[in-house]
C-alpha cells in the first residue's frame, strides 16, 4: 500500500451573486457617488449642523458642528468646530484653493457637484439620484424578501453572534486572514452584520431624514418631524448617516483590495467567485 498527494490545489468557480444583486449593487455605486457629491454642495450653502426644531431659522441656536473660515492676517484659515473643540483644516475643510487662491468653502470644489457653488443645481442633482436610489433599493428589497436572499445570505446564525466567534473574526481580519475553501462560500459574521446594519438601519434613516427635510412631505407626513425632533435634527442625522455610509464604503473597498481585487470584482461583474480547494490524498496500490 502506498499513498500519493496531488501536488497542487485546484480552483473552483461557484455562482455567488445573482444578476439582480449585481445590477442593483452597481446602480447603488452610481447613485451614492452623485448623492454624496451633490449633498456636500448643498451642505456648503450652510455648513453647520444643529439639534432641535429651529437651528438657523427664526430662533438661532448654536451649532454643535460647523465648517468655516476665519481671517488670519492677510489671508484666511479653515476651521472645523465640533462642540467646543476647534481644529485647523485649511486646504481641506473651511478654506480651499479656488482659482489659485484660498477661498471660504466648507468642502473643496473637487468633491462637489457642481464644482462651483450653486445650491439650486446641487439640489436638482441630489433629488434626481435620491429617487433613483430609492427605486433601486425598493427593487433590491423586494428581491431579497421574495428570493430569500436576506434569510439565506445575510441573516447571522446564533453561533456567529456569540462573543467568542465575533472576537475570533475580528482578530482574523486584523491579521488580514480571510476565509478560504468552503468557508469562503458564505459571508462571515462581520460582513453579515455590516450589510444588515447598512441595509436596514443606515439607508432607511438616510431616506427618512431626507424626506423629513422636505416641506412638501411634512404636510403629508407631519409625524416625521416629531419622529426626528425637527427639521434641523433630521438634517444632522442625515449628515451623520451619510458619513457612516462613507466610512462603510471605505472599509468595504479596503477589504476588497486586501482579500483579492480580481476575484471580488469578477464575482460582482460575472457572478462567479473562485475558491481554492486544497488537494485531497489519493490512495493507490
Compact description:
With 285 residues, this protein is of the alpha+beta class. It has helices at 19-45, 119-146, 149-154, 163-174, 189-212, 215-220, 223-228, 231-269; strands spanning 2-5, 10-15, 48-49, 65-72, 75-82, 85-88, 94-98, 101-105, 272-277, 281-284.
Main features:
285 residues; alpha+beta; four-stranded antiparallel β-sheet; two-stranded antiparallel ribbon; 8 helices; disordered N terminus
- The beta-strand count equals 10
Given as residue ranges, the uncertain stretches (5+ residues, pLDDT < 50) are 1-6, 281-285
Tell me, briefly, the overall form: globular
Helix tally? 8
> Terminal Cα separation, in Å?
5 Å
Mean pLDDT: 89
**Main sheet overview:** 4 strands, antiparallel
The share of residues in helices is: 40-55%
Given helix and strand content, the structural type is alpha+beta
H/E topology pattern: EEHEEEEEEHHHHHHHEE
Rg over C-alpha atoms, rounded to the nearest angstrom: 24 Å
Report on this structure.
This protein has 285 residues and is of the alpha+beta class. The protein is 52% helix and 18% strand. The protein contains eight helices and ten strands. A four-stranded antiparallel β-sheet has the order 3-4-5-6. Strand 5 (75-82) and strand 6 form a beta hairpin. Helix 1 (19-45) packs antiparallel against helix 2 and helix 5 packs across helix 8 (231-269). The N and C termini lie close together (5 Å).
Amino acid at each position: 500500500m502506498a499513498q500519493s498527494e496531488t501536488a497542487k490545489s485546484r480552483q473552483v468557480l461557484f455562482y455567488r451573486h445573482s444578476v439582480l444583486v449585481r445590477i442593483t449593487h452597481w446602480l447603488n455605486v452610481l447613485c451614492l457617488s452623485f448623492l454624496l457629491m451633490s449633498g456636500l454642495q448643498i451642505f456648503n450653502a450652510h455648513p453647520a449642523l444643529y439639534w432641535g426644531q429651529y437651528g438657523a431659522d427664526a430662533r438661532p441656536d448654536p451649532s454643535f458642528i460647523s465648517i468655516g473660515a476665519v481671517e488670519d492676517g492677510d489671508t484666511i484659515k479653515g476651521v472645523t468646530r465640533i462642540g467646543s473643540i476647534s481644529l485647523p483644516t485649511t486646504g481641506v475643510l473651511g478654506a480651499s484653493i479656488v482659482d489659485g487662491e484660498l477661498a471660504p468653502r466648507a468642502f473643496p470644489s473637487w468633491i462637489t457637484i457642481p464644482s462651483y457653488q450653486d445650491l439650486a443645481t446641487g439640489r436638482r442633482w441630489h433629488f434626481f439620484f435620491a429617487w433613483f436610489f430609492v427605486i433601486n433599493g425598493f427593487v433590491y428589497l423586494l428581491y431579497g424578501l421574495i428570493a430569500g436572499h436576506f434569510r439565506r445570505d445575510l441573516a447571522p446564525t446564533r453561533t456567529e453572534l456569540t462573543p467568542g466567534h465575533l472576537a475570533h473574526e475580528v482578530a482574523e481580519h486584523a491579521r488580514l486572514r480571510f476565509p478560504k475553501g468552503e468557508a469562503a462560500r458564505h459571508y462571515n459574521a462581520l460582513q453579515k452584520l455590516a450589510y444588515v446594519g447598512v441595509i436596514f438601519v443606515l439607508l432607511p434613516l438616510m431616506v427618512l431624514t431626507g424626506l423629513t427635510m422636505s416641506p412638501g412631505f411634512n404636510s403629508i407626513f407631519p409625524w416625521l418631524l416629531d419622529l426626528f425632533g425637527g427639521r434641523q435634527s433630521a438634517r444632522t442625522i442625515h449628515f451623520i448617516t451619510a458619513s457612516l455610509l462613507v466610512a462603510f464604503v471605505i472599509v468595504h473597498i479596503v477589504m476588497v483590495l486586501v482579500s483579492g481585487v480580481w476575484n471580488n470584482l469578477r464575482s460582482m461583474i460575472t457572478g462567479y467567485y473562485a475558491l481554492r480547494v486544497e488537494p485531497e490524498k489519493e490512495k493507490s496500490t
